[in-house]
Amino acid sequence: MTPSADQSAWEDFRKGNRQAFERLYRGHIHGLFAYGMRISSEQHVVKDAIQDLFVELWKGRAALSPVRSVKGYLLKALRYKLLRNNKVRTRYFSDLPELPDLQNIEANILAREEESGRHQKVRRAIDRLPARQQEVINLRFFHACSTEEVAEIMSVNYQSAINLLHRAIVQLRHYLNAVLFSLSFLFF
User: Is the pLDDT of residue 115 over 70?
Assistant: First the structure.
């Protein structure tokens, strides 16, 4: 959905229009699921959180305010719901490297695109980042959120979002240069 279509659907949904609510759900479900899987690799937890989110939205629609970005609002609300789960919160704030989840949608896509070596190297480099740096990269580049939206979704100030993004990019460059450097010995 375009941002203007999102805004229109949001306003209609707030007035009780079920079709607008369905458009919002259908327009954002895949993005929400992909984002949720980056926070919690457990499909049932993510699906339950998304379902709870939309049930709560419908029940509380009359009290909702207009939003600047529907996508940003939904992503932030899902993040909040997931991080209220103790198991998810513990994993999310852990600095231990994560093992890739074969159930993850992105992992399945990467498996199908195995012939693209560069894509895999970048994904492996992102997976080596701490969870919050992974999230900022995911939001900024895979969900096309502005830095302002990233800051709002992650509940940090704008400068902290910029700093987190900068550190993630510097770390990615370091990882990718190390991979390219080690590969150069294989061919020379």
Answer: no
